[in-house]
Amino acid sequence: MESVIFSNNISFDLSKYLNQLGYSQLGVISDSNTSKFCYPIIEKLLPEGHKHFSFPAGEANKNLNTCSQIWQWMTDEGFDRKALIINLGGGVTGDMGGFCAATYKRGIRFINIPTTLLSQVDASVGGKLGIDFNGFKNHIGVFTQPELVLISEIFLQTLPLEEMRSGYAEVLKHGLIQNANYFSCLKIADWEKQNWREIIEKSVQIKREVVEKDPKEAGLRKILNFGHTIGHAFESFYLNTDKHLLHGEAIAVGMVCEAFLSHKKSGLPKEDLQIITDALTEIYGFFQFFEADIDDIIKLCSQDKKNEGSTVNFSLLRRIGNCDYNIKGTAEEIKEAISFYQSLTSQVQLNQ
Ligand SMILES: NC(=O)c1ccc[n+]([C@@H]2O[C@H](COP(=O)([O-])OP(=O)(O)OC[C@H]3O[C@@H](n4cnc5c(N)ncnc54)[C@H](O)[C@@H]3O)[C@@H](O)[C@H]2O)c1
Ligand SMILES: [Zn+2]
Question: Which CDD domains does the annotation name (predicted)?
Answer without folding.
Answer: DHQS
